[in-house]
Amino acid sequence: MTVVVVVAVAALALVASTGHLGQLATLRVRAVRLLVAAAGLQVGTAILVPGWELLREATTTVSMLLVALFLAGNHRLPGMPLVAAGLLLNGLVIVANGAMPVSAAAARHAGLETSSLRLGEDPLRERLDDSTRLAWLADRVPLATPGRPQVVSAGDILVAAGVGLLLIAGSVPREPRRRSGQEPRPRPRSTTLAMESTTRGSYS
């Protein structure tokens, strides 16, 4: 699930930086390439060398560093502190266990078959058990979404909330800024005041 989160944030950052989602074009996203590189490392390692644990741990560490640099450069954007906190929590549980633990019970509550999780084949995920460290940060929150049930972590929820805030902030239209030295335009007088002024002038 962590890879999906990184890819989703990378896609959102690309959309915001290219201006294809309305007011998101006004949000200045910096160092987008760092996030794209982090997602590329995670996906590439999982696909090309899934069994090389030492390389996977190294790329995970590098990816976390790249994401941290990206978030540090964009900490003023709406929602980014939540995204940073969520990815930090996911990173902590992954480092503590070597992979993201997934609760089979939560998967069943979400409507997923345990065999579909492929926990014995996916090097980035493992089964949650009594030996799991920081189990409360694992993928143990069932989401029975129609058509795509899944199990997410507390960090994933924070990331989703942060991305949602960024989308909301980008969808709110902003008033154009006045240039320095430009005087504000005078507001037109109301029709009632104008008629009253005309009436008084006619009797004077």
Describe this structure in words.
The protein is mainly alpha-helical and 204 residues long. The protein has one domain. The chain has seven helices and four strands; from the N terminus they run ααααβαβββαα. The strands form two sheets. The chain has a two-stranded parallel sheet. The protein has a two-stranded antiparallel sheet with strand order 3-4. The N and C termini lie far apart (80 Å). The mean pLDDT is 75.
Beta-strand portion reads 5-15%
Number of helices: 7
Euclidean distance between termini CA atoms? 80 Å
Instruction: Name the helix and strand elements from N-terminus to C-terminus, one letter apiece.
Output: HHHHEHEEEHH
Write down how many β-strands occur, each being a DSSP E stretch of 2 or more residues: 4
Which word captures the global form?
globular
What is the gyration radius calculated from CA atoms?
Answer: 25 Å
Q: How many independent structural domains? A: 1
> What about the largest sheet?
2 strands, parallel
Helix content: 40-55%
In terms of structural class, how would the helical and strand content be classed?
A: mainly alpha
Structure characteristics:
single chain; 204 residues; mainly alpha; two-stranded antiparallel sheet; 54% helix
Explain briefly what this protein structure is.
This protein has 204 residues and is mainly alpha-helical. The chain is built from seven helices and four strands; from the N terminus they run ααααβαβββαα. The strands form two sheets. Strands 1-2 form a two-stranded parallel ribbon.
